[in-house]
Specification:
Blueprint: H1 2-17, E1 31-33, E2 38-52, E3 55-62, E4 70-74, E5 78-86, E6 94-96, E7 118-124, E8 132-137, H2 144-149, E9 154-159, H3 161-164, H4 166-169, E10 172-181, H5 194-199, E11 205-208, E12 215-220, E13 223-230, E14 237-241, E15 246-251, E16 254-262, E17 265-267, E18 272-278, E19 285-291, H6 298-307, E20 324-334, E21 355-365, E22 373-377, E23 389-391, E24 395-403, E25 411-415, E26 420-425, E27 428-429, E28 435-436, E29 438-441, E30 446-453, E31 458-464, H7 467-471, E32 475-480
Bound molecules: CU-O-CU linkage (C2O) and copper (II) ion.
CU-O-CU linkage binds at residues 94, 96, 137, 139, 270, 414, 416, 463, 465.
Length: 481
């Protein structure tokens, strides 16, 4: 089984460890696993002192943990979560990327759980649910960015066919939850100023599983499977393993058909990716870097600085000019060289649909001057009482996502419940087929996605995953009937 092979690789690593000076192994989040077809747990959200890196900070945690406990289930399982809101604000839970019903106490973005109240979530993963790296976080409109920036986010892993491929079973598995925090001198979460909200708030403390620059190890000759989640509300991660190749095996919605060699990997907020690292290089330390990336919005920032007398505090991000070190990879021990898988899981070809919808993503000035900006789809800010897209169940649609933002800000687009495939970017076909639930639409770009609406009817949402933009209106409702 996967765990037995992983255990034997791990014990080799452990034996070597006693002679290795780099002992600070990265900690994975706590685990809750399904048994006999049921994943059941209690989950409580509250504000409390939590250790982050080498500091204590007052953060928002699920069960007192940042990142939150890792949940693991299999296709066909029932998921039952007894949730209690001990925050001082309303909240709820969203199961990002899961293909489950959006109605009732399931992946329902319209639920509202007031402070001190509880709700039991219950839903079933379809029998053919893909295996992959999904996650959960709060989704109460107006509070999402603040609560996720406080730390509320955890992995939701669905185990299945990808985990059963022998080469993948032989790999050592690590989970990397990427979160950035802005912590003030008294250990509290910084509140963003006006511009930081427009840009999307970022913090200067970069963490992997709540740690600063942890160390991961790979057996020389062995394989390492890294499962990344960008759980930051706004920060983009342009990941690279210094002087070391890696191979993409899965995106948001699960496995690719075959591994794709990459030199770097851009993860917008909400996105996930799985890569294999092969221990075939010189045994030494390799740094996992976050390379500079400009996500746009410069003009707006300059205007704003003019307005505020140039004194406003930069929130990093677009202004990041140097690579940042996220973690270190060290080689330990050796195994006889393990091969990369040649084939993974075939990715379905979707039929070309008749329906094409166009969605313009933009930032609009509010009617009343001085009220700031709202973020919109087709010029409209979110209205919980309006249906923006009426879709027929069991049809496929193409959606054309057009970023017409006057400041050419990047907007990662996310659709709940219904995974999709990216067909073209600025008219050019994508290099490989993959399932996604969040796709980056850069300033000025047009991205065409193909969405099968199947299995579940009801109302759900799509939105920008720069969560301040979502809270400021960039969200719409799709009704599937
Ligand atoms: Cu991860 Cu609707 O969000
Ligand atoms: Cu956005």
């Amino acid at each position: 089984t996967a765990s037995a092979v992983t255990a034997s690789v791990a014990s080799i690593a452990l034996a070597q460890n006693s002679r290795n000076p780099f002992k600070s192994q990265a900690l994975s989040p706590k685990l809750h696993k399904s048994a006999d077809g049921l994943l059941e747990l209690e989950l409580e959200a509250s504000s409390r002192p939590i250790s982050l890196g080498n500091k204590q900070a007052t953060l928002l945690g699920y069960n007192g943990q940042v990142p939150a406990p890792r949940l693991e289930a299999q296709a066909g399982d029932i998921v039952r979560i007894r949730f209690t809101n001990n925050l001082s604000q309303p909240t709820n839970l969203h199961y990002h990327g899961l293909h489950v019903t959006p109605i009732g106490n399931a992946d329902n973005a319209f639920l509202d759980i007031p402070p001190k109240e509880s709700l039991t979530y219950e839903f079933t993963l379809p029998k053919n649910h893909p295996s992959g790296t999904f996650w959960y976080h709060p989704h109460r409109h107006g509070y999402v960015a603040e609560q996720v920036f406080g730390g509320l986010a955890g992995l939701f892993i669905v185990r299945g066919e990808l985990d059963e491929i022998p080469e993948i079973q032989a790999a050592k598995e690590e989970f990397l939850v990427l979160q950035d925090f802005g912590i003030d001198g008294s250990g509290r979460i910084q509140s963003p100023n006006h511009m930081a909200m427009m840009m999307g708030r970022e913090g200067q403390m970069l963490t992997v599983n709540g740690q600063v620059k942890p160390t991961f190890s790979i057996a020389s000759g062995g394989l390492l499977r890294l499962r990344f989640l960008n759980a930051s509300p706004s920060r983009f991660y342009r990941l690279a393993l210094e002087n070391h190749p890696f191979y993409l095996i899965a995106t948001d919605g699960g496995a690719l058909a075959e591994p794709v060699e990459l030199k770097e990997l851009l993860l917008a907020p909400g996105e996930r990716a799985e890569v294999l690292v092969r221990g075939e290089r010189e045994p030494q330390q390799y740094r996992l870097l976050n390379l500079p990336y400009n996500r746009g919005g410069m003009e707006m920032m300059e205007d704003e600085m003019g307005m505020m007398g140039g004194s406003s505090h930069m929130m990093g991000g677009s202004y990041q000019v140097n690579p940042q070190v996220l973690a270190t990879l060290t080689y330990q021990g050796s195994v006889s060289t393990l091969p990369l898988p040649k084939q993974l899981i075939p990715v379905e070809t979707l039929p070309e649909p008749k329906t094409l919808r166009r969605l313009e993503l933009s930032m609009e000035e509010e009617m009343t001057p001085g009220m700031g900006m709202s973020f919109t789809f087709n010029g409209k800010a979110f209205d919980p009482n309006r249906i923006d897209a009426q879709v027929r169940l069991n049809t496929v649609e193409d959606w054309e996502l057009v970023n017409v933002d006057p400041d050419r800000m990047d907007h990662p687009f996310h659709l709940h419940v219904n995974p999709f495939q990216v067909i073209t970017r600025n008219g050019k076909p994508e290099p490989y087929r993959a399932w996604k639930d969040t796709v980056l639409v850069r300033g000025g770009e047009t991205v065409r996605i193909r969405i099968p609406f199947r299995d579940f009817s009801g109302k759900t949402v799509y939105h920008c995953h720069v969560l301040d933009h979502e809270d400021l209106g960039m969200m719409g409702i799709v009704n599937i009937q």
